[in-house]
Amino acid sequence: MYNLLIGGAAGLGIDTTAAILEKLLKRSGYNVFTVRDFMSRVRGGHNFSLIRFGTEQVYSHSDQLDGIVALDQETIDLHKGQLLENGFILCDSKLTDDDPRLIKVDTAAMSKELGNPRVSGSILVGVILKMFGESIDGIADVLNTFVSKKNLDINLKAVKEGYLLAEQRFQHLSGQYSDWMLISGSKAVALGAIAAGLRFYSAYPMSPSTAILETLASYADDAGIVVEQAEDEIAAINMAIGASYAGARAMTGTSGGGFSLMVEALGLSGMAEIPLVVIDVQRPGPVTGLPTRTEQSDLKFVISASQGEFPRMVISLRNPGDSFYQTMRAFHLAEKYQIPVILLSDQYLGDSTSTVEPFDPQKIDVAQPAAEYSGEGEYLRYRYTENGVSPRLIPGKTEHLVNIDSDEHDEEGHLTESAEVRIRMMDKRMLKLEGLKHELQEPEFIGADGFGTLLLGWGSVWGPIKEAVNILNEDHHGSYAALVFGDIYPLPVELLKEKAAKASHIINIEQNATGQLGGLIREETGIICERSVLKYDGRQISGEEIAEHIRKGEIK
Amino acid sequence: MSMETFCTHETAWCPGCGNFTILECLKTALEQTGKRPSEVLIAAGIGQAAKTPQYISANSFCGLHGRSLPAAAAAKIANEKLTVVVDTGDGDSYGEGGNHFIHNIRRNVNITHFVHDNQIYGLTKGQASPTSILGLVTGVQPDGNFNEPLNPILLAIASGAGFVARAFSGNQEHLISIMKQAIEYEGYALVDILQPCVSFNKTNTYAWYSKRVYELDDSYDFKNKADAMQKAMEFGDHIPIGIIYSERKSTFHKKNQVLKQNIPLLDRKTDPDTVNRLIKQYI
Question: Which of A359, A401, A407 comes nearest B62 by C-beta?
Fold first, then answer.
């Protein structure tokens, strides 16, 4: 497995260089995982992408580097310490360092000669491809997606010049992943929504959720979707609810700050029983927090957000595959139970790209609203039923009237203050939680029975935990297994109870300061995580880091 | 006047409230446009006026305080065949929902917005609303309201609304005519309807309004924006009612690439080939 860092100031083209490189590597057969670390600014600062690739599945990032591609001096200064002994630093000739591992390329002069100073990145792509023994046959096709038509030729030339300049240094490894997808969590969410029949998406731009809004907007005309940038998050969610009421499958997306504005309307979806999918792509809070960084600190917030009590489902996404299929499933559950379904992603998952098996939309069935009222007697939007789910008709599609109300209401949908109706309506709505319990998917079990220590996590720590279990078990100091939750509210408890009973130690690993999953587990099951590995510096924990903490006993 | 189609329900309003006549006029206007109840969606937020959808036989969306415009606009986006009317109060429309008011004018979805403007908060029992006049004494403004009253007509014209009108609950024939024209207008249409609040606004009474309002006649050209802005500022001894400003504008549905194809959004199906083609882009 190889690990490359491409770093520099914002505006130097790190993102494009990384995107071109990761795609070329994936197409040559590698399994690629790229994490993006950037500052909240448009120019300057220090940003980097870490591209890790190998012939086995890469689940997360690593901080140990085989190579650094430095587009500025700061990249060398900050990351040299992570470089393996036989690693290299590739940079422009004007950068300086006495490290013998430095490989200087006069990209400034070369790109000037080529006629465009912005092709330095492409020159470096050529150099790297040669160093890793790759061919440049397919580059035109890949460059095509990332550079404008008029700049295609010059970039092609730049890659070729870089390629000719360098010498092969690493062995090309033959992987089997050329037919797999390379996709980020946020783009997988967008595809999942489209596959589920999304018709309306409204959102207000907010990092790190904007990638979903942009991706959907770019496919909207093609897929027959209306994407609307709302005036604020309150409008965004109310629009999604209005569209859903009127029969268009709808979703909204934001990060924690925007979700804070949405909470009243979340209750409207619950009270009026209007299907809704909301994604919260988490970033560190409180308030503005660290806008472009990662955290998992909204769990307890979203499971209890909005006043009063109503049924909801919360699904945390663990990887891009999950992001696609669970988004589809979220639409299914929202429609089937007429509830809000909240997806929890985060910046790490949202912006990182992974290599995944091509998605198969056929795997998930998505429920549809009824076309006609087939029950007995008068049509009542909130008819009391055995499972709490009332017949949902689309206004204007039949002669029946569809009345919804945020006030407590009777079966017809008109407001009431009757104590008796209140109790029956509350019970009707809460009954849906019983149905939801049968839908729950147990957490993924990583490792094998016979373990001593059980690690617990949720969402995007899936990759790092998977790696950590491998690292720790290879150490032969104790044996480890893990449960990583996807469905998280209502909390699936069967597998947890079974595995917890066999564990001598239980450690929760979370990207927050208070161990929110640990708290939820304790509340729901009485199971106590006696130790925690908690990280809340805005940077995702790696498998190595988890293993290190556990080995050293540096846990809370 | 027939109101059988959108039949009457028992209401929880105070006797003498302007809401009664607005409700009656709304039913008549809808009936005169030839709509069936199942084709009509009445949306509202929270407030006394916002109870209107409860008292009319049509599809109804009683959502959150101030948030009926985004929900209603999106419902129209979802199904262009629905006739969508937002019927709610001045606090809901201009106070809690002020931001949505401005931006839905910009959005120009083909919906109609009737604002029951009694210049007071009724449901919360008599506090200043965004349109309360200067000096109005309430339990929360004991020294008199000193915040500048919002001019919804002027704001709407300035924000680019294509149909802006004012009516008075005490002039029913006129109100019905304005309501019909607003419903039939293609685009976002605002009708600010002056009405007395018999319980909490002892200043802007029926008599106060009756003395001041006058109907605009044919000599007034509502297509001239500069004149309309001038007219919009007339709110003192004389208050004009009628269409203050109107122009033809392209709507959200006409401008959106998907909606302009005239297939109601909710009737579209996602083509599996499209999904597979998008998936392949990532290989």
Answer: A407
